Amino acid sequence: MTPFEAKLTATAKRTEELLNELLSTDTRPQETARPTHLIEAMHYGALNGGKRLRPFLVVESAAMFGGDREAAFRIGAALECLHSYSLVHDDLPAMDDDKLRRGKPTVHIAFDEATAILAGDALLTYAFDIIAAPETALGDRARIELVLALARAAGVGGMAGGQALDLAAEKRSPDEQGIITLQAMKTGALIRFACEAGAIIASARPEDRMRLRRFGEIVGRAFQLADDLLDLTSDAATLGKAAGKDAARGKGTLVALKGQDWAEAELDRLVEEATDLIAVYGDRAATLIDTARFVAKRKS
Amino acid sequence: MTPFEAKLTATAKRTEELLNELLSTDTRPQETARPTHLIEAMHYGALNGGKRLRPFLVVESAAMFGGDREAAFRIGAALECLHSYSLVHDDLPAMDDDKLRRGKPTVHIAFDEATAILAGDALLTYAFDIIAAPETALGDRARIELVLALARAAGVGGMAGGQALDLAAEKRSPDEQGIITLQAMKTGALIRFACEAGAIIASARPEDRMRLRRFGEIVGRAFQLADDLLDLTSDAATLGKAAGKDAARGKGTLVALKGQDWAEAELDRLVEEATDLIAVYGDRAATLIDTARFVAKRKS
């Protein structure tokens, strides 16, 4: 394990401990009844063994600007709840109809469809609860900017809108620009938010926030491109989900459109662009630069 | 039309104008692509001709404490987006499987199931966007308290949790206390939020906020009890939806458990309790008292 991988693993572990605590079925003083079954489904959907890349980006972006580490972990956990909701709903029969995720039954298979819909709804709602909760020790200004940025990243102009464009793309294939836009919304927006969030947590200057936003956009593109490459070249055992799925559904990807060689060169170019962008922060940018490289070169 | 009904109608009209503007498919400067179909489904789900009782409670609670009227309308619209999301998802085949709402095809019938899931998700997300947006001219403290209160009212300890308990109740009927808890979460929490929101918007004193919260709880109970009575005594033409549906599903209601006479007496008692609670505000409480009475006595 490289030092970078050790760092990523440690953040994933800490994020999961926090999610475990946030999604516990223990009774809270202010509540009259706990819908235990629903919370178990939320816990199942959120603690699914991901790499926790988004929380890592939040924590490392905040660290670069000297932001509060505990607050960053809580924002990371909120983002992971929101990301998990999108996976739970995307897997539903009416959507992608997936029965496995990371080799385990999806939420609507392990529980039932109604519970999966509700668990997704509740995870989405909980993300905003966590940001606004007093336990997330941040100033009101930072909190409200995080709420707004996350709502925009997840809403019609972001992830949900991208998913809608993706459903439409199954009927009519988009062109290159259409695919770029769709992916920037569907997967890019949350990754961009993760990087921008660090700057907000640390109350960084507006130009730093904009630079992190741009960095997040590039990392988001690299993430999706690497994903499309993996979908084409990996087998199910490595991926923990059905491989070649996108191609089988006729979903247009940039890799399908422009080829594997182009995609590999483009990934190198994106890593370089991301590196140049935050080189201005010197040594403090090292972990984020490693992250961009890791995202582009990952094998699963 | 009574003066109260005229007031309610005027607020509904203004709320719908605002929702119409907020859910317009016009391109926004910050967005690269608008998923028009998704926004149309959100618009269809949110502009469904309801009485807009929740926004009315927000606006009138804020007015009682001298809160900003425009801000109250925007918080009312946000709440209505959130309420609409819950209706769109509740109507889904995996949930209540309803094909009609207010005499019109439900969202998954008028569009399709995937679009209905996404439209609900996006309406829920948009509620937090509206609260946090700079256009909702409120201080950061009020905004963050609204985000937190709404997330709690809608989440596992509130509406989503109540819906989960409701699904479980189809398998095993809850007792009287169980029904009260379920209903307080499923329908009560948002109505309570509506009343509490007015106090938050106006930066009212903590004891006023607590009193409005309690007032909202009582109005919420009256709302649900009146609903259960209507389900039992109305026909589909008056309700705009299938009548006797709850009884047919074997869903336990307090009316089924304790009878119609008890329910009518209980409604009188709740109106009295609500009135006594806010009598301390004198004449300024008149509209909210009228609202409690209207909620308890409504015929549709």
Automatic annotation (TrEMBL), chains A, B:
UniProt-listed Gene3D superfamilies: Farnesyl Diphosphate Synthase
GO molecular-function term, one example from the UniProt record: metal ion binding
PANTHER family reported in the protein's UniProt record: FARNESYL DIPHOSPHATE SYNTHASE
InterPro entries membership: Isoprenoid_synthase_dom_sf, Polyprenyl_synt, Polyprenyl_synt_CS, Prenyl_diphosphate_synthase
Cofactor(s) the record lists: Mg(2+)
Gene Ontology CC annotation, any one: cytoplasm
Protein name (record): Probable farnesyl diphosphate synthase
Organism: Ciceribacter selenitireducens ATCC BAA-1503
Xref: CDD domains: Trans_IPPS_HT
Protein's GO biological process: terpenoid biosynthetic process
Signal peptide (residue range): none
Keywords, sorted A to Z: Isoprene biosynthesis, Magnesium, Metal-binding, Transferase
Cross-referenced Pfam families: polyprenyl_synt
Family recorded in the similarity comment: Belongs to the FPP/GGPP synthase family.
